[in-house]
């Protein structure tokens, strides 16, 4: 039940609380993820801020209408909001162990599966434009359907061929859409 | 069982691979045997889009194959231009839109300039200064007087920073001696600028003639100054030429946008000639002429060396203006591009060494005149 | 401009209606376009604009009315189709459907797929009919209002939309706002429209900037695929055999919501560039505020589906009138329609009504007919599309990846957009792990560039007298609305937290006893 994997206090209905408890049992350090995402967002905001700082400034009105105004304002806002979020998480969940979180994430089967899927989709996208579109589709569907164990060999091949035909010929034909 | 399935799979894949790679290369004489794709550097609905679509429709009926338009927006057309440059020069992929390729190396929006393609501009847009009719300015001098008398900074709207409206607007300010008394406001194209002029947010606009010509026909807006070598009549509206009050602005006509297609310069000569014939046919069709004159675009088909010169001059007019207004950091002199005042062609080695147009095309063009 | 002349269109409606109804080509165009649009809307990544642009070449082989019928059909069909995938797949097929997922998909997960599709169908019907009636009656007013909106007001509408989407999509508005402003920041990559300088333009593709369609497909499509398929046994939708269940009785208690949402769609739809994507959020927020079942929102309540669906269909009129009467397309689809009209030699703008009397009436009638055709078509075909979109997730979601790729590719025909889609898929997945909402980020990418441009242009226009910017009446009203929204969202948060803490304490006490 990934859909209800929530650990917020504002929950009040019974079902969600049960899921929350299940989550607690699994790994109480899960909210460390907030810190990690905050770090990533702050890094992104800082990058954007520094990048914006170097924009040529040609506004006659100075800062206010220059190209750097909005990016600098927004990245500052993002940093502030991230800090607020980190503080709230800290207050709400108390002390959390980062190494505990790391081990929890590593042990989580769903996380592992999602990494495998990411690699599959990533390689597929990387090869688009290099290998003919139909073939790369066919390979992608064969591999992913095999990984997802959708059925027998026959079914995997059949579904893959149909899916690749839909993606590389049928839809582009109907919509007059050039493909890679 | 399993082994058989794998065999079937391999057979299927080999069949598909064969059919994909096995497409025989059609001979040059047979061109075109399949649909042509035009990579259009701007979004659907704009002047580039409608002009090229109208042109492509007629060329398609002459050539007997579909011409599909793919809107590949971005970097002022640079992405589409670069993509077409990197495609095979087999006549099946053209670039479409405003012919500003000479500015790409200066603005770094693409790595190649006008030299790598044969330009086929079909229509031209003059740049015009419009005011609200209700403000009662009859001549450009009335507007200049009003700006000088104003006790505030006067705002004017234009097409986009570094675009033709902006360059003409600034040239006008300088020629009329109004420096420091006006502030330019950049909009997304002349249509939007016109909207804000009517709404009262700006006092006048400098845009392409066709952007708001219908408002002039309807009577809400009035043209005061037109960047064109003669007065222009359009549906009962007179667009006064710059030649009367500001003849010094006449060289700036090269910043007026040209719209059309461009074809890779490495394309076989036979194909270029066929394209030229189709182009000649298309620009003479009433449906094409009506489609563009309806939008206030002046039919101005060019081919041959004259087209090269027009395309190259854009680099001088726009490139230097963009540099002067601080929009780009690269000085056009880095590429030996002269200022309009010092214009000559060819102006450097690469412009002198471009592959010339096929003689047949020059003949077709001479016939068209 | 003489606005009185607009009212003559009212009288021409019956004649134009007769003309449309007696021309089989036009009706066929509407039907064909509708089917294409619906299918396109259901495919992740094929948005209304893209489907319409791709079909332009074909449109010109048809007579004017049939061609415009085809485009109207695609437009309305895609909005509808996008909502269906939002309900059944948790992937809004078009940006307009981003608010529909909140309660639409929740209903499907509760085993009410057929009911949810039925409600979405009726809601879009009401939205379209109501929105276009309103548009037609208010024709001169809309045309005037569109010319009154300044940069400052448009910016404020965008800001309100972003703030609302941030607060509504998430349990924790802070996370919603991080997503919204983070998305806005992404939108700033590219050429600065005010000064023409490149922002983060390290490559030609970055000079062009990040388009929102790959972001939309990535955040909603790819992230959803990763999210669902990482389960060994992905969820399955129940109660999906058969046609949609379209009970009108659901609407009995919700007519107020319907009318309010039509009003929102109409009003916000006029705002160019941002109206279409902001309206559903505003309608959702208002519905929630006025509802007795506030805490049920987001858990699969019909009201929460009705409000955004009605609103997103009602926006079409608000964007249409400025395009026809002023030649100012306020949205992507209307820009494509304008291109098509030009190709037919018809100039939208102030001269349209003089040169082609009755054209606007006819255009609006096309929307009505398409609304009716839709209900019939969707009723007949609902059995099949519900069945197709409800098949096992591990079969259908990989196909969604493939379709997402061609959708992203279709944006600019280069691999950069496909890569952007993948990156945002990863971003979306990691954000979801910590309950960051996706919709505000998509909205940020969609309206961010416009909002930034309009803000700075307003500052430029009023540089001599910045104060006068704040005294424009409409602007003042919008500022107050913005403050109200932010304050009330934060207050709700604090209240909810207190209530939750209270409850925990009570429970702890109970246990002690």
Characterise the protein shown here:
The complex is a heterotrimer of chains A (180), B (369) and C (513). Chain A folds into two domains: 31-106; 109-174, no CATH class. In chain A, 71% of the residues lie in helices and 0% in strands. Chain A is built from seven helices and no strands. The model of chain A is unreliable at 1-25 (pLDDT under 50). Chain B has 13 helices and 13 strands. In chain B, helix 6 (164-175) links the parallel strand 6 (154-158) and strand 7. In chain B, the strands form three sheets. In chain B, strands 2-1-3-12-4-13 form a six-stranded mixed sheet, with helices on both faces. In chain B, strands 7-6-8-5-9 form a five-stranded mixed sheet. The model of chain B is unreliable at 17-25 (pLDDT under 50). Chain B folds into two domains: 26-123 and 257-368, D-Maltodextrin-Binding Protein, domain 2 (3-Layer(aba) Sandwich), CATH 3.40.190; 127-254, Periplasmic binding protein-like II (D-Maltodextrin-Binding Protein, domain 2, 3-Layer(aba) Sandwich). Chain C has one domain (4-17, 26-471). In chain C, 75% of the residues lie in helices and 1% in strands. Chain C has a two-stranded antiparallel sheet. In chain C, helix 1 crosses helix 17 (359-389), helix 12 (255-269) packs antiparallel against helix 13 and helix 18 crosses helix 19 (415-433). The model of chain C has no long low-confidence stretch (mean pLDDT 86). Chains in contact: A-B, A-C, B-C. Chains A and C meet through helix 2, helix 3, helix 5, helix 6 and helix 7 of A and helix 2, helix 3, helix 9, helix 11 and helix 18 of C.
Key features of this structure:
heterotrimer; A: 180 residues; mainly alpha; C: 513 residues; two-stranded antiparallel ribbon; 22 helices; 75% helix; globular
């Amino acid at each position: 039940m990934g859909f209800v994997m929530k650990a917020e206090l504002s929950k009040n209905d019974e079902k969600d609380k049960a899921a929350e408890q299940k989550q607690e049992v699994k790994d109480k350090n899960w909210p460390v993820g907030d810190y990690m995402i905050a770090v990533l967002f702050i890094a992104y905001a800082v990058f954007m801020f520094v990048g914006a700082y170097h924009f040529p400034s040609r506004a006659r009105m100075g800062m206010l209408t220059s190209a750097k105004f909005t990016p600098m304002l927004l990245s500052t806002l993002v940093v502030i909001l991230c800090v607020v979020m980190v503080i709230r998480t800290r207050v709400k969940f108390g002390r959390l162990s980062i190494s505990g979180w790391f081990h929890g994430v590593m042990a989580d089967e769903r996380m592992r599966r999602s990494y495998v899927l990411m690699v599959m989709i990533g390689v597929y996208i990387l090869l688009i434009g290099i290998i003919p579109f139909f073939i790369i589709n066919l390979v992608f569907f064969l591999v992913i359907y095999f990984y997802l164990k959708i059925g027998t060999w026959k079914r995997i091949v059949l579904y893959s061929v149909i899916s690749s035909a839909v993606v590389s010929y049928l839809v582009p034909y109907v919509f007059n859409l050039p493909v890679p | 069982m399993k082994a058989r399935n794998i065999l079937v799979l391999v057979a299927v894949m080999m069949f598909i691979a064969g059919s994909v790679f096995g497409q025989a290369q059609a001979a040059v004489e047979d061109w075109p045997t399949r649909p042509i794709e035009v990579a259009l550097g701007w979004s659907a609905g704009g002047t580039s889009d409608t002009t090229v679509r109208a042109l492509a429709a007629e060329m398609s009926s002459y050539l007997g194959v579909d011409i599909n338009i793919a809107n590949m927006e971005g970097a002022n057309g640079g992405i589409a231009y670069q993509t077409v440059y990197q495609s095979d020069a087999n006549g099946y992929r053209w670039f479409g839109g405003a012919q500003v390729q000479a500015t790409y190396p200066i603005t770094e929006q693409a790595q190649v300039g006008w030299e790598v393609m044969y330009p086929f501009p079909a229509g031209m847009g003059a740049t015009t200064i419009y005011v609200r009719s209700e403000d009662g300015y009859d001549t450009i001098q009335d507007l200049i007087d009003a700006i000088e008398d104003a006790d505030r900074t006067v705002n004017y709207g234009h097409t986009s920073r570094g675009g033709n409206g902006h360059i003409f607007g600034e040239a006008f300010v300088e020629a009329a001696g109004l420096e420091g008394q006006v502030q330019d406001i950049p909009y997304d194209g002349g249509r939007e600028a016109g909207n804000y002029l009517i709404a009262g947010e700006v006092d006048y606009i400098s845009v392409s003639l066709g952007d708001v010509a219908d408002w002039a026909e309807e009577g809400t807006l009035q043209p005061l100054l037109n960047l064109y070598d003669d007065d222009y009549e359009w549906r009962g509206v007179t667009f006064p030429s710059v030649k009367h009050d500001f003849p010094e602005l006449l060289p700036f006509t090269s910043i007026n946008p040209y719209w059309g297609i461009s074809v890779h310069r490495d394309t076989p000569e036979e194909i270029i000639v066929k394209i030229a014939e189709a182009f000649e046919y298309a620009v003479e069709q009433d449906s094409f002429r009506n489609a563009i004159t309806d939008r206030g675009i002046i039919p101005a088909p060019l081919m041959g060396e004259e087209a090269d010169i027009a395309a190259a001059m854009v680099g001088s007019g726009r490139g230097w203006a963009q540099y002067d207004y601080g929009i780009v950091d690269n000085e056009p002199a880095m590429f030996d591009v002269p200022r309009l005042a010092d214009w000559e062609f060819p102006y450097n080695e690469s412009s002198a060494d471009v592959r010339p147009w096929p003689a047949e095309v020059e003949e077709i063009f001479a016939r068209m005149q | 401009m003489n606005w009185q002349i607009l009212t003559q269109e009212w009288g021409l409606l019956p004649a134009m209606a007769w003309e449309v109804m007696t021309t089989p080509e036009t009706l066929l165009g509407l039907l064909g376009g509708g089917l294409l649009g619906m299918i396109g809307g259901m495919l992740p990544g094929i948005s209304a604009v893209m489907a319409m642009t791709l079909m332009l070449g074909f449109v010109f082989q048809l007579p004017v009315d049939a061609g415009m019928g085809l485009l109207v059909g695609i437009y309305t069909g895609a909005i509808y189709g996008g909502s269906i995938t939002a309900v059944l797949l948790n992937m809004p097929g078009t940006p307009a459907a981003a608010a529909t997922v909140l309660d639409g998909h929740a209903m499907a997960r509760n085993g009410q797929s057929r009911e949810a599709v039925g409600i979405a169908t009726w809601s879009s019907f009401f939205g379209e009919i109501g929105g276009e009636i309103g548009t037609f009656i208010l024709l001169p007013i809309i045309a005037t209002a569109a010319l009154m909106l300044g940069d400052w007001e448009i910016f404020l509408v965008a800001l309100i939309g972003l703030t609302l989407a941030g607060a509504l999509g998430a349990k924790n508005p802070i996370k919603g706002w991080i997503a919204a402003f983070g998305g806005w920041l992404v939108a700033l990559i590219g050429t600065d429209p005010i000064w023409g300088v490149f922002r983060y333009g390290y490559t030609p593709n970055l000079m062009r900037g990040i388009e929102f369609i790959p972001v939309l497909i990535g955040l909603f499509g790819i992230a959803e695929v990763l999210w669902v398929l990482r389960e060994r046994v992905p969820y399955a939708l129940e109660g999906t055999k058969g046609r949609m269940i379209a009970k009108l009785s659901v609407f009995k208690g919700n007519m107020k919501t319907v009318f309010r949402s039509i009003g929102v769609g109409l009003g916000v739809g006029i705002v160019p560039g941002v109206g279409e994507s902001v309206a559903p959020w505003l309608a959702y927020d208002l519905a929630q505020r006025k509802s007795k079942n506030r805490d049920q929102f987001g858990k699969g309540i019909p009201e929460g589906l009705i409000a955004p669906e009605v609103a997103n269909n009602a926006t079409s009129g608000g964007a249409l009138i400025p395009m026809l009467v002023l030649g100012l397309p306020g949205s992507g689809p209307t820009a494509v329609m304008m291109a098509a009209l030009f190709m037919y030699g018809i100039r939208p703008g102030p001269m349209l009504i003089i040169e082609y009397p009755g054209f606007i009436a006819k255009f609006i009638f096309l929307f009505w007919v398409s609304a009716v055709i839709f209900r019939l078509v969707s009723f007949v075909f609902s059995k099949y599309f519900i069945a197709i979109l409800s098949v096992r997730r591990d079969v259908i979601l990989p196909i969604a990846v493939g379709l997402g790729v061609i959708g992203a590719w279709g944006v600019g025909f280069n691999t950069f957009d496909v890569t952007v889609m993948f990156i945002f898929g990863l971003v979306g997945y990691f954000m979801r792990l910590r309950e960051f909402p996706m919709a505000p980020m998509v909205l940020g990418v969609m309206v961010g560039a416009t909002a930034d441009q309009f803000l700075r242009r307003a500052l430029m226009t009023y540089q001599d007298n910045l104060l006068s910017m704040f005294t424009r009446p409409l602007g003042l009203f919008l500022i107050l609305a913005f403050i109200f929204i932010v304050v009330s969202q934060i207050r709700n948060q604090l209240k909810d937290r207190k209530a939750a803490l209270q409850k925990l304490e009570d429970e702890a006490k109970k246990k002690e006893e």
